[in-house]
Amino acid sequence: MTPSGTHAGPHAGRGDADDLDVEEALALVRAPKSDRTDRADQTGRTAPAPARPSGPEHPHPHHDATPWPEARDLAARAVRDATRRPHVSVALSDALGLVLAAPLDALSDLPSFDTSAMDGWAVAGPGPWQIRDGGVLAGHAPPEPLTDGEAVRIATGARVPAGVTAVLRSEHGRTGPQDRLHATTEMSHGQDIRPRGQECRRGDQLLPTGTLVTPAVLGLAAAAGYDTLTVVPRPRVEVLVLGDELLTEGLPHDGLIRDALGPMLAPWLRTLGAEVIAVRRLGDDAKALRRAITTSRADLIVTTGGTAAGPVDHVHPTLERIGAELLVDGVAVRPGHPMLLARTKADQHLVGLPGNPLAAVSGLLTLAEPLLRALAAHPAPEPYRMPLREAVQGHAQDTRLVPVVLRGERAVPLHYSGPAMLRGIATADALAVVPPGGAAQGAEMELLDLPWDTAGIGVCFT
Questions:
Q1: 63-to-70, 72, 227, 251, 327 alpha-carbon distances in Å
Q2: Are residues 183 and 218 in the same domain?
Q3: Is the peptide bond before 128 cis (omega within 30 degrees of 0)?
Q4: Which of 46, 163, 255, 283 could be joined to 145 by an S-S link, Cβ 3.0–4.6 Å?
């Protein structure tokens, strides 16, 4: 685990675009000195060196970072060739936010019998009608048939008696002497009757495979006769928090700091549709990290910190020892440059997040979110753009992810957006994707919605 990053300036568009946090700086250590000197950029900082073979002679080489859009695409495609968990059958109460793994076919006609669409009278033939004693209520025994000239009180949703030609709404009828019913408006045959099979017939496909289960889908499934649904299971995620310097309670002291990522990542991952099976604190223990990775039954392991090249940054060495396949090793994005994605088993991946909080959020949205979406078979959200209310300074080579709030038709960049800061993201509606070089006032930027912004805490299911 490496120390926190550099302090960001008070304005969103200044300072933090140019500051390398400690983990990002350490990531550059992997390049041989001659390569780093030859590849210095205009600001005097070292640019990434070309990839070199790993092994005893070239331990943990630094290489050109993966462009941000490509990294997201690689994460989404990483699970296409992976071994998938079998589909599961779950109760309707547990299906919200999952994706149908089989078509939803009607198990019965909807409605399954002729029903009244309104409170009023079921009438047979032309009026006026003689009102029969009693009434017809929803959920009760089948009513007696009516003959021409008869009427009976009926409730919304009640089964229509045989012989009925229409339902006369309560507000459109008038009763006279000797219980005679008269219509006060014109009526048509079949009026306010929902005929059997009006919505669907048994066997009709209501929804295709791949449909996201929303509250409305649950209602339709229940109406169509389902108690359970066949769905793609939630991805199982295990979070491994690294770092000896982290406290779980109290105030920072004696070089120790509070762990911000442990409390933040589990609920964030749940809003992305994951089942978080464990959050484990391992400190800076390489053996414990290896044991945790090799024994995990999660579909995705998320580690925090330890992705650079510091003396206790154990993620890269551990992945090498267990023979993991590195798919993404560094991303051209700020904050969050030293994030990584690896395939640890045929059916398991690992996302290594930087230890700085906002850099970890960047890694979560860059690598974990697309991978979890693919595992859960969720469709990719439609991208959208909004103009900036003020200019944002960019990094010379890398994409920047900048917290913004949405005000009217504009995105307003927030302060406190340095790699180690959460004050900006805590009040943000989205992250603006700022291309290398920055963006002028009024420029339209792609926005990444935060998962709770569109659905609310605890109810986000996409």
A1: 15, 18, 53, 39, 13
A2: no
A3: yes
A4: 163
